[in-house]
């Protein structure tokens, strides 16, 4: 059966049932001026053919209007066609810290694209402070660059109040952001790589408490609890254990091992980066070499004096207003305050059977960064997702940003200064925490102790 010019795009989309009904309604309401023009009759045919190239369609439609001003297709039509076609793109999301980026991360990115047949792979990444309650070894921009160079199409930053929280908050915040951005899949590594086991909360004996399985369980809980329209997909993690800081397996090493080598005291700038070349992608090695010329590799003890000042200045008020600091812990901090030597030493001093070292590190981090219980209440009130700050993207796949902007149910921040000025009071409060954390980090990471203002930081584009 032949198609009229007016409905030819519908015919090309007829095999995509999810789009057909909506498309038919739009085309029934189309308004094309000067329809007697020969070029007008050709346009629907051309669009039908190029409709197959959905990620190029938006630019093509606007090109047609600019090229032939006498042909005016209603803006609503253009927008709806783009939305329909953008939904055909498969977007897979990954949650990561890349602290620092290594071959294991590159493997996950490549597997995610392959296993989910993804057109785009995006990442929600911790900023300058990470989930174990510590500063990242390299800043978020360098780590974003490594991810983009290794095939990620876009990187978004997890708010610091979530990125430094326990697994439950971390998982909910990151998965919710990916779902709200419009991702089709959540891809992650787990100990046995069996999604059915994770869905049933059945784990291999002895592996329940591994960080990958804990996060996997929390990811699935978040999807269930918030009824998120995102499908989970897992793969068996390869190489050494997550926290193995003493060994490597072939070309795979844990981030803990790499950090230990880099932060060794053998040289002024840390350990010999060249010895890590088997476990770090060449592009990331190059980024690292450039980074350390002007930046320090950051460890928590760099913040020792700042933290001590804060503890001394607030000793009388106590610390239980800060997230993860309970009244008993606040009292314990006060009673041990005058034995303080350094950030990490103080965390070890406070450690006991009833409180884990990781909990203590997060509690001290929240004191350092002024993250209080009320900040977390705002996050909960907004179902763990308030905005998505873009850190960078690949220029050859920049169409992903337009697709995400159309799919997303939350604000996507592409220019921080503009958004900060116009956003809601709650979003501004959370952003202020992000900005403060980044400014504090930049002071200690920069060898000249310069503070690089977040408003002036450009997007990372490769």
Question: Could you characterize what this model shows?
Answer:
With 462 residues, the protein is an alpha/beta fold. The protein has three domains: 5-86, no CATH class; 91-295, Rossmann fold, CATH 3.40.50; 301-374, no CATH class. The protein is built from 21 helices and ten strands. It has helices spanning 8-13, 17-28, 38-50, 57-67, 75-86, 103-116, 140-149, 160-163, 167-181, 195-199, 211-225, 255-262, 282-294, 304-313, 327-335, 343-350, 357-369, 373-381, 399-407, 416-422, 425-445, and strands at 91-96, 120-126, 154-158, 185-190, 231-236, 248-249, 252-253, 387-393, 411-413, 460-461. Strands 1, 2, 3, 4, 5, 8, 9 and 10 form an eight-stranded mixed β-sheet that branches. Strands 6-7 form a two-stranded antiparallel sheet. α4 runs antiparallel to α5 and α7 (140-149) packs antiparallel against α13 (282-294). The longest helix is centred in the C-terminal third of the chain and has 21 residues, at 425-445.
């Amino acid at each position: 059966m032949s198609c009229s010019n007016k409905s030819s795009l519908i015919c090309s989309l007829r095999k995509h049932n999810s789009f057909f009904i909506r498309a038919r309604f739009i085309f029934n309401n189309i308004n094309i001026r000067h329809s007697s023009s020969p070029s007008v009759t050709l346009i629907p045919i051309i669009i039908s053919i190029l409709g197959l190239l959905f990620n190029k369609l938006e630019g093509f439609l606007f090109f047609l209007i600019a090229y032939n001003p006498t042909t005016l297709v209603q803006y609503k039509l253009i927008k709806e066609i783009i939305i329909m076609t953008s939904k055909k793109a498969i977007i897979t999301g990954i949650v990561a810290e890349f602290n620092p980026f290594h071959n294991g991360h590159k493997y996950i990115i490549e597997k995610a694209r392959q296993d989910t047949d993804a057109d785009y792979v995006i990442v929600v990444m911790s900023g300058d402070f990470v989930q174990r309650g510590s500063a990242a070894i390299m800043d978020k921009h360098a780590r974003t660059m490594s991810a983009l160079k290794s095939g990620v199409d876009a990187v978004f930053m997890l708010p610091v109040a979530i990125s430094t929280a326990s697994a439950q908050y971390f998982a909910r915040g990151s998965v919710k952001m990916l779902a709200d951005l419009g991702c089709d899949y959540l891809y992650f590594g787990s100990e046995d790589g069996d999604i059915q086991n994770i869905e049933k909360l059945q784990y291999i004996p002895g592996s329940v408490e591994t960080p990958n399985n804990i996060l996997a369980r929390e990811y699935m809980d978040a999807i269930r609890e918030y009824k998120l329209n995102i499908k989970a997909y897992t793969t068996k993690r390869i190489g050494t254990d997550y926290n193995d800081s003493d060994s490597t397996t072939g070309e795979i090493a844990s981030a803990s091992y790499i950090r230990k080598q880099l932060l060794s005291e053998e040289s002024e700038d840390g350990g010999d980066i060249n010895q890590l070349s088997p476990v770090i992608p060449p592009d990331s090695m190059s980024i690292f070499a450039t980074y350390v010329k002007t930046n320090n590799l950051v460890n928590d003890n760099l913040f020792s004096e700042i933290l001590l000042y804060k503890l001394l200045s607030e000793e009388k008020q106590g610390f239980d207003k800060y997230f993860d600091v309970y009244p008993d812990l606040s009292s314990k901090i006060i009673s041990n305050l005058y034995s303080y030597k350094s950030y990490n030493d103080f965390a070890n001093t406070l450690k006991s059977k009833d409180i884990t070292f990781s909990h203590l590190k997060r509690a001290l981090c929240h004191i350092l960064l002024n993250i209080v219980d009320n900040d977390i209440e705002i996050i909960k009130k907004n179902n763990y997702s308030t905005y998505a700050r873009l850190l960078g993207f690949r220029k050859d796949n920049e169409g992903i940003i337009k697709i995400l902007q159309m799919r997303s149910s939350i604000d996507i921040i592409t220019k921080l200064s503009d958004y900060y000025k116009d956003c809601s009071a709650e979003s501004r409060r959370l952003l202020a925490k992000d900005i403060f954390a980044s400014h504090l980090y930049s002071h200690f990471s920069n060898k000249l102790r310069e503070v690089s203002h977040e408003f002036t930081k450009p997007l990372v584009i490769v």
